[in-house]
Structures are given as C-alpha cells and as structure tokens.
Amino acid sequence: MAEARLGGHILADALVAQGVEHVFCVPGESYLDLLDGLYAQRNRIATTTCRFEAGAVHMAEAYGKLTGKPGVAVVTRGPGACHAAIGVHVAFQDSTPLVLLVGQIPFEETDRESFQEVDYRKMFAPLAKWVTQIDDAARIPELMAHAFDVATSGRPGPVVVAISEEMQREMAVVQDLAPAPVLPPHPAPEAIPRLMELLGKAQKPLAVLGGSRWTPEGRAAIRDFLVANDIPVAVSFRRQGLFDGTHPNFVGDLGVGADAGLVKAAKGCDLFLAIGTRIGEPVSQGYTLFDMAGATPIVHVYPEQAEIGRVYRPALGITADLNAFALAAKAAKPVAKPAWSGWRAELRAAREAQAKAPEYEGPLNLAVALQALEKALPKDTIFTTDAGNFATWPTRFMHVSEGQDFLGPTNGAMGYAVPAAIGAKITHPDRTVIGFVGDGGFLMTGQELATAFHAKAAPVILVFNNGMYGTIRMHQERHYPGRVSATMLTNPDFAKFIESFGGHGEVVEATDQLVPAVQRAMASGKPAVVEVRTNPEQVTNRQTIAQMRAQSAKA
Description:
- This protein is an alpha/beta fold.
- It folds into three domains: 5-172, Rossmann fold (3-Layer(aba) Sandwich); 191-353, 3-Layer(aba) Sandwich (Rossmann fold); 357-554, 3-Layer(aba) Sandwich (Rossmann fold), CATH 3.40.50.970.
- It contains 20 helices and 20 strands.
- It has helices at residues 7-17, 32-40, 53-67, 79-94, 120-124, 140-152, 191-201, 216-228, 260-268, 322-330, 341-354, 366-376, 392-397, 417-427, 439-445, 449-455, 470-479, 494-499, 514-524, 545-554; strands at 5-6, 22-25, 46-49, 71-75, 98-104, 130-134, 158-164, 171-172, 205-209, 233-236, 250-254, 271-275, 298-302, 316-319, 382-385, 405-407, 433-438, 460-465, 504-508, 528-533.
- The strands form four sheets. It has a six-stranded parallel β-sheet with strand order 3-2-4-5-7-6, with helices on both faces. Strands 11-10-9-12-13-14 form a six-stranded parallel β-sheet, sandwiched between helices. Strands 16-15-17-18-20-19 form a six-stranded parallel β-sheet, sandwiched between helices.
- The longest helix has 16 residues, at 79-94.
- The model has no long low-confidence stretch (mean pLDDT 95).
C-alpha cells in the first residue's frame, strides 16, 4: 500500500517515474520541498545548479535536442520565471521537448499581487504548448505525466508547470505514473506511393531537412532514401547536424544568410520535399520562396497535422513521426535513372564554390582558420552556436559531418551558445563540445562558465570579438550608413576572464593560431575560452562596412 508523501517528494518521484535523469535549476524558496525531494532522489537524478535562469533552460533545451527526451529545468517564481522565458521561447520555435517547473506563490494569496505573483497560464500561453498549475498534491502524478506526454507528442515543445508553495508541503497518498506506451504515427498506406509518384515526375527536386527528435536510425534512413534517389539535400536554419555536409548530395543551408544561388535554385525547383521543417520564415526567405497557393508542388512531412498547409498549400501532406517516415521512405524502390542527377551535381558544385575561402584583409582569414579547425576536430564533435553575424562564418565555411551534432537557436536568441555547450558537455561528457559565440552574446550568459566548473564540464568556447553588435550594425549600415548608434561595445579580456575562474584562456589574432589554440584548450581538460579577434570592418563574410556604405550611396 502506498505511503503518504510530501508534495515536493511526490514531484521528484514523478520526475523519476518519467525517466528524468538530469535537472538544471536556479534554486528558490518557492520550491524548497521539491529541492528536498531531489535530495532524496540524488542517486537517480543529477541536479546542476546554474547561475541564471535563462542559462538553466538553455542547458535543459540542449539536453532535449541531443537526447530527444524532455530537458527539465526548475526555476523560482516571478523574476526567475521571467528570466526563464527566453529558453522557453527557444524550445518552442526549435520544437524541442522541455518541461519547466516554476515555483508559485501560495494559492490562497492568488490575485492579491502577492510577492512575485505571476499568472503563468497567461504569461506562458503564447510561448508553450501547454501551461498548468498544480495546487493539489494528489494530482501531481497525473499532471506531470501529461506534461511529459504533451512535450513529446506531435510537434515537440515546451510545457510549463507551476507548483504552488503550500501544495509541496501537503501530504498525499497517490501512485506514481509511468510514461504511456504510445507508438509513433506512421505514414498512411498511400503516402509513400504518392510521394514516389510525384518524385518520378520531377526534373528538379530539392529536399530540405528540419525538425527535432531525429534518432540515429532515422537520420541514417532519411540519408539512405535521399542518396538512393540522388536528391539534392539542404538543411533548414541551424539544423546542420541532420545531414553530412561533406556528402555529394549536400547543397547547403536554407536559412538566414543562405547562399543566393541556393535560394534561386529553391525558387526554381519543381518538387520541394519539406521533411521535418515547418517552412517557416528563415527557410522560406521571408515567405518569398513559393506561391502560397501551391504553384510549386510541395510534399510536407511533419508530425503535427495542424502545421501542414499552415502557410503553403502542399501537393501532398504526410502526418508522421519523422523517424517512422524515414524508415518507410527508405524501404521504397528508388526512382530508376533519376532525371535530376545533373541538377544535383550543379547545386553541389555551387555549394563547394561558395564554401571556398575568399581573400580577406588583415592577419586573420577566419574562413581559412575555420576550415583548418574542421579538419582537426573529432568526428563526434558537438557544436553549439549563438545568434549573430559571426554565426554565418562556420555555417558557410565549415561542414558538419556524419556523427557530429549542431545546436543553435532558430529563434535567434543571443546568449544561447555558452549554456548550451555546457548542457551538451554534461549530456555527453566524453565528446568534444565547441561553442561559437559573439562578444555580445557571450556577456549575456558567459557567467554560466561558473556552472561548467561546478559541474566539472569542460567545453571550449570560441568568442568572436569585433567590438560590436554585428548583426544590428550590418542592418544599421544598410539603412542608415555611417550613422552608428548603440551598436559599439566595450569588452573585457575574454582569455583573462576564464583564467580568473581557473580555466584555460587563449587569444587568436592570426589565421594559423586558431587550430593550435583550440588544441591546447582541448588538451587542458578545463573549461576554455578562445578569444578570436576579428576585423570589425568585415561585418559579414561577404561585405565590409565600406562596401555597404558605397552600395547605399549608389542607391
């Protein structure tokens, strides 16, 4: 017979029941009883103490991306929840399974504007798949089990669970609930034959991979299907880990900063295979790729039916788990003698051409340095990236290969890369983790390196320092050339910053310095920062500030 337990302990036990092995948190008095429950379960759930709530949720989100299981973060009420909202937005737009627990005021004080009171149902409604509040300890197993079900079903995403303070102190007799054994949705019987019929009529097909919760088996199956049919493959915004960038079928990324040639090719294709991507604003280049009425045939494969046809009318919509679809597609007989092999070779040649390193002024040619780094890194490296113009350099000039992972915020959240790198290293301690971040983004969450030391995790962070908010400066020079306002930055010595923690710091100012610096950082076994001092004049990998101003003067 079940024994009476404190609500806080029932919450911790519910996490165990759902298979949770790791929790990221910033502690607060609003969930002391849950913290005590986690202490009781310390041999089954590891708890990482973070320094900022956004950092904690970014770490949990990175865990969710890498494992396909919901990342779990716990934060306190009011300010803690507001800080955490950034990470919830990332998880929502990135379709990452996540469960955020938020401490709440005593429910008897509701609607008095009590200390740190927030109505989380209203606050998180547009940011999460589902928001609930637990005020009765007896309902903890039911609501927590449903939270995990919602986070992983259909289009994955974040769920927010508010846990009222006095509920955690209630005693209740209740059984824990294990996850429900739900089989993933498979393609309808006629889906693959209709897909192959459309493919057989095409002359210029293009596939774009996106989405989350891909398994290694699913990624291998979709690769085999696309390669067997010799289809050119692009990835959607910041999804470089879904297809081997060194493969002859890889033709680039269709997102922010995409190669103009690939965008033109996408507009000219006669069959667009959207597999896992919502065909959102970055992929569609601001909803300009296609006629929304369906002039270009689109096959849209997605696990949530409501997303299919949301913007573009597809010729065929397939509601299915992405991995189940991949296995079914792989089993289909390939198209005999595809008519588009020349088209695929043409797009691949264009990708290789735009990845060639141009000549840049100054001692550091970042393109050459990054390509040398690519060759020197392990084959199972995990990359994380922040938002910013610097991020287009590794995207354009590096290739994420088979066995590597790439994590980035598709919602453009600055401050993501450092905590994501820490979360990735905690999730996979035996793999090399490289974080790419700009000087602006680093100082938003760079203090989470303290968490890396606390957790004994040692990622290597590359800080691209040009002394400005580069993306905003780029737009500023295009619209208001020469009128620099609010985009310049004053920075510390980033190498000394990490050294003050006891970590490894390096400064890179020339092309041939990057690889040795990163190798020393990796060999140190410590959390490391490699500050890469870039030319501020080279504000993008395609234009300088002077070129932008000259272009504006001609307009």
